[in-house]
Amino acid sequence: RDAFGDWSSDVCSSDLSALYYVITLGLVAIFVFAGSAKITPVFAPDLHKQLTEKGPAFAAIFQKILDDLQVKFTIDPTLMMRTIGATEVVAGLWLLGNRFVAPLAALKLMGIMAGAIFVHVQLQEDFTPPAVLLGALIVRSFLTPSCCASKATTSKRSEEHTSELQSPNAS
């Protein structure tokens, strides 16, 4: 780190950028797989069966909240799981998008993971998987490649300027 506490541009531009892409690709794979399992049994029949069996318990938690708020709406557990699954697939793929789409996708997935943690806590189940995914999404949001690229570019320009000033041919 330098005198101001910043990491060197070499670390930022290479190591953190690589970490960003590793986390992103891992999240894409996980969300596309998990979302697909919520929609159809084609890719993971056992997981699909497990999720569809738990769907009514998940929906009951949100239905109770709506009932307590006196909202006249009935949650269909199958539709809820498919909607969450489709959102995970689409938002998971959008993590690969540009600098405007990817943060919105990450924000949507953070909301889904926060909801998943809430549901698992209410059912007194292990909430480690959605908590880890939420943590990875948060870490990813701090490792934007544009940040690393701008620091590397600024550092390179500064080095070029310094070498120009030190060069004997500089006028």
Largest sheet: none
Tell me the number of helical segments per DSSP (H or I, 4 or more residues long). 6
Extract low-pLDDT stretches. Answer: 7-11
Q: Estimate the mean pLDDT confidence.
A: 85
Give the DSSP E fraction (strand runs of 2 or more residues). under 5%
Q: Calculate Rg over CA atoms.
A: 22 Å
Distance between the termini: 33 Å
| Helical/strand content category | mainly alpha
Query: What order do the SSEs take from the amino end to the carboxyl end, as H and E?
Result: HHHHHH
- Give the overall shape: elongated
**Percent range for helical residues?**
over 70%
**Strand count:** 0
Characterize the structure shown.
The chain is built from six helices and no strands. The chain has 171 residues and is an all-alpha fold. The protein is elongated, with a radius of gyration of 22 Å.
Could you write a compact summary of the structure shown?
The protein has 6 helices and no strands. The protein has 171 residues and is mainly alpha-helical.
Question: What attributes characterize this protein structure?
Answer:
single chain; 171 residues; mainly alpha; 77% helix
Q: How is the secondary structure organized here?
A:
Blueprint: H1 9-39, H2 45-68, H3 77-94, H4 101-122, H5 128-142, H6 145-166
